[in-house]
Amino acid sequence: MKIASVILLFLCVACSPAKTPLVSTEDLAFLEDLTRVVVDSSRILPGKELPPAIRGFGPNRSGITLIKPGGRDCYPSFWIRDYAMSLECGYITFQEQLDILLYTAARQSDSTWTTKTGSLVPLGSIPDHIRINDGKPVYFPGTYDYVNQGNEIWRMPPFCDQFYFIHMAWYCVGLAKDPEVLDRIINQCKLITRLELAFEAVPINPESGLAVISDSMPTCDFGFRDVIGMTGEVCFGSLLRYRAASELADLWKHMGNSAKSESYQSIAKRIRSSLIPVFADNRGMLRASTGKSRQPDVWATAFAISIGALDSPNCKKACSALAKAYLEGTLAMEGQIRHVLTTDDFDSTTAWEKSLAAKNTYQNGAYWATATGWVCQAINMVDQPAARKLAKEYIDHLRKTDFRLKGPDNGGPYECIYPPSGYKQNPVYMTSVTGPLAAFRN
User: Which of 22, 44, 187, 364 has its CA 20 to 30 A from that of 342?
Assistant: First the structure.
C-alpha cells in the first residue's frame, strides 16, 4: 500500500521545514533509549498482574499484549488515545498494533444507548478506556465503573477516541502495505465500516465540518483536557476530524473506491478552510472553542501546524506566535508545555474558563511534555535556536528526573509538572516521551 503522500502531509508542516536537527545525536540516543524502556514498562503482557498499588484492576485477561498510558501505577486500563498517540515512536510492534486494533474494534458501540447515569453512547463510539481484567469498555472519563459510567460532566464520550481509532487503522494498514485488514469482520461488521461509524459518531456543524459540543450534551473533544468545560465548535476535535477524513480518503483510495475517497477529501478540505475564520486570533493562535473556554490553545495551534492543517502564511504566523510566547516565558517550563499561555489565563483563579482542576495543576495550567515535540517543530520553522533551546530544556529535565535513577524526584517522564510548587503527577508517562521522539525524528 502506497501512502507516501499522506505521510508527507501529516509528518511535515505547511511551511518549509529546517534541516538542522532539533536535538544532538547524543540527546536523541538518550531519548530513544528512555522511550523504549518507558514503552516496555507500559506493556501488560497476557496474564500479567499490574503493580501492587493497582493490582485490583488486573491481571490482563485480554489474551493480547496491551499498552497502558505509563508504567508503575499509572492509569490501570488500556487507553485508546495514549496508545494511538504513541504509534510513531517505533517501539510498538506490528503484531501488537494489529491485535490492539481488532481488540478495540470489538468494543465499539454497535448501537446508540443510554447509560444508567443518563449519558449517551452513540452508535460507533469508541471507548475512552478498556478494563484489562474483563475487557469491559468504559466510554467516559473519570471512572472504571462499566455500569455507572458517565455523569452530568460527560453526557457524551470524548470526541478524540473515534478519530484516534481511525488513525490506528490507517497506521497499521500503512505498515502492512496491504488494506486486507480493512475487510476483517469484527462482530459481524467489516473494519472499514466500523471506521466510518466512528467518524460519524461525533456531532458537527454541517456547514463548517467542525466538531461541536452543545450546552445540553457536555463532553470534551480531546482527552488531554477532559476536565475542562468547553462549548461551541471545538478546535482540537476538529483537527483530529480533519486528519481522520484525510486518512479515510487514503484508505478508500487504496481499496479502489475513488468516490468514497473523494468524499472524505472534500470533508477534509471543508474543515481546513474553516479553521482560520472560526478559531484564529489576531496573533495567529487558534482558539480552543467558540463558546465556553475559548482561550487561545497552545496545543491545538501546534498540532494544527504539525499535521499540515494551515496554509503557509497562517502557518508562519502561528509559528511566530508560539516562538514569541516561548521567548517571553509564557509558554514553557523545563521543556514542558502549558495548554494556555500564562498571558491568556481566563482570570487570576483559573487558566481555562471552566475547569475541575485547580489553577496550575493538571490540565489547568500545569506543564506537559506530550506537546513539546509539536511546539518545537513549530518554533523551528521561524527560530531554530529557540526551538533547539526548548528541546534541550526538555532533554535536560528528562535526564534530571530519569526514573531509572534512584531518588524521590526520579519519576520522569512525568505526565505533567508545575515547577514553582514542586507539583508533579504520574511518573513514567508514555506520551511524554513517545510524542516528542517522533517529532524530533521527523
Answer: 22
> pTM for this structure?
0.95
Mean pLDDT of 105-122: 98
- State residue 228 phi and psi, 5-degree precision: -105, 130
Rounded Cα–Cα distance for residues 37 and 48 (Å):
18
- The DSSP element (H or E) to which 44 belongs, if any, is strand 43-44
Tell me how far apart the alpha carbons of residues 231 and 352 are, in angstroms, rounded to a whole number.
12
Rounded-to-10 torsion of CA 163, 166, 172, 174? -100
DSSP state letter for 362? T
Question: Three-class SS of residue 246?
Answer: helix
Domain boundaries, the chain: 4-441
DSSP state of 212: E
**Highest mean predicted confidence (pLDDT) among 7-11, 13-17, 298-302:** 298-302
Give the type of residue at 256.
Answer: G
Other C-beta atoms lying within 10 Å of the C-beta of residue 33? 11
Farthest CA pair distance, the chain:
59
How many Cα atoms within 13 Å fall on the side-chain side of residue 294? 13
- Which cell numbers in the block locate residue 349? 483563579
Q: Give CA–CA dist 307/138, Å, rounded.
A: 29
Name the amino acid, one letter, at 352: W
Query: pLDDT per residue over 285-313, tens digit each?
Result: 999 999 999 999 999 999 999 999 999 99
Residue 442, amino acid:
N
Phi and psi based region of residue 400 (left: phi greater than 0; alpha: psi -120 to 50; beta: remaining): alpha
Give the number of C-alpha atoms closer than 13 A to the C-alpha of residue 298, restricted to the C-beta side.
37
Write phi, then psi, for 287 (nearest 5 degrees): -75, 150
CB atoms within 10 A of CB 142: 15
Per-residue pLDDT reduced to its tens digit, 403-441: 999 888 899 999 999 999 999 999 999 999 999 999 999
- 4-441 topology per CATH: Glycosyltransferase (1.50.10)
